[in-house]
Amino acid sequence: MLLPILYYPDPKLHTVAKPVVAVDKRVQTLIADMLQTMYEAKGIGLAATQIDVHERLIVIDVSEDRAAPLVLINPELVWHSAEKHLNEEGCLSVPGIYDGVERFDAVKVNAIDRVGQIRLVEAEGLLAKCIQHEMDHLLGKVFVEYLSPLKRNRIRKKMLKAQREERE
Ligand code: NI
């Protein structure tokens, strides 16, 4: 089932997510729906926060063929590289907006997978950037919050205008 995505500046995007209590049937359905929603929207990652579910759950697929889903439940950052780099980012909750954000080049994250097993995910490159972006969502943070207040305000206005036009 496709799920509606929250758009910036919806205040619900700033909700801090709580841990997933059990990887049960409900969570399995949620994972399947989030993956479908992410693929349909042509995104490379989606956090539960973005579909107004405030639990620590992320789906990602950075593969070319869109056939390598990664599910991270209750992810915890356990290591990051010393090096950071500025890269252009976008977000399904801020459609059409791309701007530079500094992220660690590599990270290691402990997370529960979709069958309930704890695993260590070692990531670099695009996957590392994506994991950091999605983990921010779980803390109620959208990437535009890294930009200057001036830029952020401009994006906010642009988004509100687009949403108004959408309704008309
Ligand atoms: Ni995002």
Explain what this protein looks like in three dimensions.
By secondary structure, the protein is of the alpha+beta class. The chain is built from three helices and seven strands. The protein has helices at residues 25-40, 125-138, 149-167; strands at 45-47, 57-60, 70-80, 84-89, 99-104, 106-112, 118-124. The protein is globular, with a radius of gyration of 16 Å. The model has no long low-confidence stretch (mean pLDDT 97). Nickel (II) ion (NI) is lined by residues 91-93, 133, 137.
Chart the SSEs and their pairings:
Blueprint: H1 25-40, E1 45-47, E2 57-60, E3 70-80, E4 84-89, E5 99-104, E6 106-112, E7 118-124, H2 125-138, H3 149-167
Antiparallel strand pairs: 1-2, 2-3, 3-6, 4-5, 6-7
- Oligomeric state: single chain
Please work out how many helical segments DSSP would assign.
Answer: 3
Spatial extent as radius of gyration? 16 Å
Task: Enumerate the distinct ligands.
Answer: nickel (II) ion
Largest sheet: 5 strands, antiparallel
Low-confidence stretches are none
Structural class call reads alpha+beta
- Spatial arrangement of strands, main beta sheet: 1-2-3-6-7
Share in β-strands? 25-35%
Gap from first CA to last CA: 26 Å
Mean pLDDT: 97
Number of beta strands: 7
The H/E string reads HEEEEEEEHH
Outline: globular
- Helical residue percent? 25-40%
